[in-house]
Amino acid sequence: MTQDELKALVGQAALKYVVPGEIVGVGTGSTVNKFIDALATMKDQIKGAVSSSEASTVRLKALGIPVFDSNDVESLSVYIDGADEIDQQGHMVKGGGAALTREKIVAAQSKQFICIADESKLVGALGAFPLPVEVIPMATARVMRQFVAMGGTAAVRLKDGQPLVTDNGQHIVDVKGLTITDPVAFETEVSQWPGVVTVGVFALQKAQVCLLGTAQGVKTLAF
């Protein structure tokens, strides 16, 4: 099966975690787009969604799924999102689509995080995928120096030759060369650096379940 077909497979499989009559948390990215398409087949059974990005909001609304502001929803039964990497404990690296801050916000108000991914995303230790960090622009250079001191290399993510601007008006620093052996400690430390809005390690809001697309079908990992 192609990677695209695997994404469609896990997107469809995630429907069984959607609670009828409730609002579902929806992430961002190419795998989530497959889930949104699948969700449209049962849109009459749910109240709507809380979305983690402008891109997902546009897709949801285009398919006739109401989108609620996260401030208007006390809690969500489930949040369904992809990952750039996920380890054997359910810790993830996210933010390849630059939506990590809003993703972490929606994950925090959800009772369960379901990760949907193809098997290439499962890793022994986080760090092979460049770690996204959303930063306030005036802190960019200093935050990059702190990652260099850790042994990494950091670069500002660009779009059309200029720093990419997130939905929140901030920049993204991508960090390579780190092996994150203690995701909880790493997330806790970097989150406290002045100027860091969000670090793309999801350890405090880790996945409880990962639906992994494989050549043999969907494999369910529970953490």
Describe this structure in words.
This protein has helices spanning 3-13, 30-39, 54-62, 100-108, 140-149, 183-191, and strands at 23-26, 48-51, 67-68, 79-81, 85-86, 92-93, 113-118, 131-135, 153-156, 158-159, 162-163, 171-176, 196-199, 201-202, 209-214, 217-222. The chain is α/β, with parallel strands linked by helices. The chain folds into two domains: 3-123 and 204-222, Rossmann fold, CATH 3.40.50; 131-199, ACT domain (Alpha-Beta Plaits, 2-Layer Sandwich). The protein has a seven-stranded mixed β-sheet with strand order 3-2-1-4-7-15-16. A four-stranded antiparallel β-sheet has the order 9-12-8-13. Helix 3 links the parallel strand 2 and strand 3 (67-68). Helix 1 crosses helix 2. It is globular, with a radius of gyration of 17 Å. The two termini are 26 Å apart.
Topology, element by element:
Elements: H1 3-13, E1 23-26, H2 30-39, E2 48-51, H3 54-62, E3 67-68, E4 79-81, E5 85-86, E6 92-93, H4 100-108, E7 113-118, E8 131-135, H5 140-149, E9 153-156, E10 158-159, E11 162-163, E12 171-176, H6 183-191, E13 196-199, E14 201-202, E15 209-214, E16 217-222
Parallel strand pairs: 1-2, 1-4, 2-3, 4-7, 7-15
Antiparallel strand pairs: 5-6, 6-14, 8-12, 8-13, 9-12, 10-11, 15-16
Helix pairs in contact: 1-2
- The CATH class label of the largest domain is Alpha Beta
Q: Give the helix tally.
A: 6
Number of self-contained structural domains? 2
Main sheet characteristics = 7 strands, mixed
Any idea of the CATH topology of the largest domain? Rossmann fold
Strand runs, count: 16
Distance between the termini: 26 Å
Helix content: 25-40%
**Mean of all residue-level pLDDT scores:** 97
| H-E string | HEHEHEEEEHEEHEEEEHEEEE
Radius of gyration: 17 Å
β-sheet strand percentage: 25-35%
Low-pLDDT residue spans = none
> What is the CATH architecture descriptor of the largest domain?
3-Layer(aba) Sandwich
